[in-house]
Amino acid sequence: MVGIFLFIRGKLRLGDANMGIFTRFFRNNRDKLADRHMSEPSNEKERPSSKKLSENVKYILDAFHQSNDLKIRVLKKGDAALLYFESLAEHEKIHEKIFAPIEMGHTEDVFHLPNAKQTNDLEEVVRTLLRGHAIYMEEGKKEISQFSVTSSFGRTPEEPQNERVVRGAHDGFVENMMTNINLVRKRVEHRDLTIKYFKLGKKTNTNVAVVYMDGIADPMIVQEIETRLHSLDSDMIHSPGHIEEFIEDKSNSPFPQMLNTERPDRVAANLVEGRVAIMAEGSPTTLIAPATFFMFYQAPDDYNMRWFTGTFVRLIRLFSFIIAVTLPAFYIAVVSFHFEVIPDELIIPVKASINEIAYPPILEALVMVIIIELIREAGIRLPAPIGQTIGIVGGLVIGDAVVRAGLVSNLMVIVVALTAIASFVVPSNELSTALRLLTFPLIILAGTIGFIGIVFGMLFIIIHLTRLQSFGVPYFAPLAPLSLVDLKDTFVRLPMYMMKLRPKDAHAVKPIALNPSREWKNRDEQNQSKQGSGGNDQPSSTDDTTK
Amino acid sequence: MKKYLIAGIVSLLFLTGCWDERQFKNVKLVLSLGFDQGEEGQIIQTVSIPSVSRATEGPGSESLQILSTSAHTPLQARGKIDRMIPESYDPAKVKVIVLGEDLAKQDIYPILDDMYRNPRSNLNAYLAVVEEGTAQDVISMNHTGATRISNYISGLLEAAVSSTHATGENLQLLCAELLEPGIDFSIPLLKIEDDGNLLTFSGMGLFHDKTYTGEKIGAEQTTLYMLLQGEKGRVARLTKKIDDHGKDEILDYITVSVAENDRKMKIENKDGEIAVTINLDMKVKIVEYPSDHLYVKGRIEEIGKKLSKKLTDESVDIISQVQEANSDVFGIGRRVKAYHPEVWKELDWREEFPEISIEPKVKVEIIQHGIIN
């Protein structure tokens, strides 16, 4: 019995020691960070604790402005106090870590509990209290013990709603960053997977992690991301979307320059390609940088399909880009400038459908596009049953009634509906919204100068795309600059065993991703040809030695 | 500075006002155009304008308005017609242009000038000449064949092209032949029959330079005429009389479908005299031959020889018609100009063409005879 206890205690101590090193490292890191840019004086200096319990308690209470959820339990008839935030700490954990060992009689002194951590710094105590620790202080002693008793409410790693796949992993990131890192580490079991913590937000003190594969990811890019994160000086950081705007290259561009994902498999794959992931506490979304335009058209499903189908859906998606951006503009240009291009067989039906519409096509299109956006925006945050009603009212009733009333031609309804569907085909929500926004300038250009307007608009968009960079990496790669090898995973999805090199745009240090993996195929073919030739001796064959 | 620039650009946006906009809903489409010879050198232009009204379900109802006016030039006529209709009409989607016979016998280029000058006109439009009638009759005819006269005529012509009866020449293809002296052309002829209810393709009208000669290759002969020009549509079927049994007329005939045709034209210059040989090698399939007995040895070769002779005779006939009309549809002049420029310089081709010797040689080889013997 005693042996077992000793064993457990020993183990506990060991674990504690490890944790101590870890937290010290963590603290150092954080303090360095604080030195660098935390301007608030109270965070900066150390405040040694006094021997008087009342002074210490008063200091802590003042630090939290007498906040009501800070609980003080007076112990030992006023000689000791246990402080914790009842909103952060878990009663069961307090019992388990502090009172249970004492009751079991291992030790009389709380300071000697194996899971306690000592400090003399009241400022540190303030910080650890905020992290959900409980602290124990005694009259006449300078040491303060801290116990980690944080309660956390986390959901289970469910499949993200916005990135569902048919085949493949069905787990997703959650709000707890440790869980997220755990999910990634489970997938990339390698010592090169490096994680760097940052504390961002002067008031929120959000934990941010930069995750990358050392030895694959370009150190310059990692350095650049770290520099940009360091220079971020804001009171509040609450999500990666928030961080994104601070560190992206061009925030005036409609195109997202970092990939958002909630899927651990996607993050893992991108890490191994040599990209860098940025995670934040409290948000399941992970940023992946550097990103290219075509990354937003890749979906995890592609890699679980056969490569023909994978290529087919890729092409469909890229085609949808063209539809989503240009179809309404094209239609408007045709019916208000260049009706010669309508095929002879269609000319009368088209004419019949738009003949008696009161408004010019450009107004028609703007009205319809805005209606679609209204329906989408109205339905997006509503609970599912009401959302369906909105869909029916919006889609069927408005769509049909608007045509019957002669306000909008039925061709325009078809065009706008197709455009909306095409914009939803993009796997990334960010790019999808960007595409819907890009439709408007093109509609206006097409309505003013026809096809020439579309050409100018597209030219402008493409020039912008080619000039755009994401962390020093060309955004429109591999098209500009052209890299034929990298087309293997953009317009098409070639078989996995042909993806021997990592994409160049990630600037991976180690370019080779896989060595020849289908050697057995050659062997089989050789065997077959040998059999086919009726067992004749073929001295040139290398397999002769096996005979 | 930047503020003014932005304000300037924004205000420009409001100024544009879509100056060259052509709203499709605001134009009247004209799908078929007709020109006739009027009095005192004027021309008569006839247009059919379909007006469609929207229906909530299914195709809208359609009504046709046929307008005719006489003027000095086609564009003047267009202006006159514009004054008769709401909105204005746009010939950008014209499918067929029909010319009356009287008008076609004069220079047709002035009628088409506007079509070539205007970048928006439809150069895919077919051209046809009405035999013994006016374009006005055709455009305004009360037909039952198709919903619109433009569909009727263009459908008729397309069918003629695919069955190797007509060349399917549109305004674009015609342009070079119209303006070049070394080559002439022929245009499909249409004829109104059955008291104005039926339109038929009645052959190819031979043109000399820019005018209709009045001579035509009859509808029966047009297939061979096309093959002699080296053109074959999707199907080329020839029905010929090769036997003379005497009892049953139907047994004398054979129908072959041309599988391959290879036309070679050889132009020789014999001391300034141009001699042309047209070799036409055809591989044909027998598709109809009620007299049968094809299994008999040598029968097929015999039929081939008979057909060769028959077709050579007919070709001589066609060529003499062409020469009589002085219509160099084979483009012999073009080749003479290219290969024998010194002869071309001395010749007046218009005078010379009817005189030169053109010798056709048709060789028929039968390669199939269907699934029965």
From TrEMBL, chain A:
Cleaved signal peptide residues: none
Membrane topology: Multi-pass membrane protein
Keywords: Membrane, Transmembrane, Transmembrane helix
Biased amino acid composition, Polar residues: 528-547
Keyword field contains Transmembrane helix: yes
Bilayer-crossing regions: 315-337, 405-426, 438-463
Region (Disordered): 513-547
Any one GO CC term of the record: plasma membrane
Location of the protein in the cell: Cell membrane; Membrane
Entry annotated with the keyword Transmembrane: yes
Assigned protein family: Belongs to the GerABKA family.
Protein name, entry field: Spore germination protein KA
Source organism: Halobacillus aidingensis
Automatic annotation (TrEMBL), chain B:
Major place of residence: membrane
Protein origin, superkingdom: Bacteria
Keywords: Germination, Lipoprotein, Membrane, Palmitate, Signal
Xref: InterPro entries: GerAC_N, Spore_GerAC-like, Spore_GerAC-like_C, Spore_GerAC_C_sf
BP terms from Gene Ontology: spore germination
Ranges for domain Spore germination protein N-terminal: 20-192
Domain Spore germination GerAC-like C-terminal: 202-370
Protein's UniProt keywords contain Lipoprotein: yes
Residue ranges the record marks as coiled coil: none
Gene Ontology cellular-component terms listed: membrane
Cellular compartments annotated: Membrane
Pfam families attached to this UniProt entry: Spore_GerAC, Spore_GerAC_N
Keyword rRNA processing among record annotations: no
Bilayer topology: Lipid-anchor
Family assignment from sequence similarity: Belongs to the GerABKC lipoprotein family.
The protein's name in its UniProt record: Germination protein, Ger(X)C family
Organism of origin: Halobacillus aidingensis
Lineage per the UniProt record: Bacteria, Bacillati, Bacillota, Bacilli, Bacillales
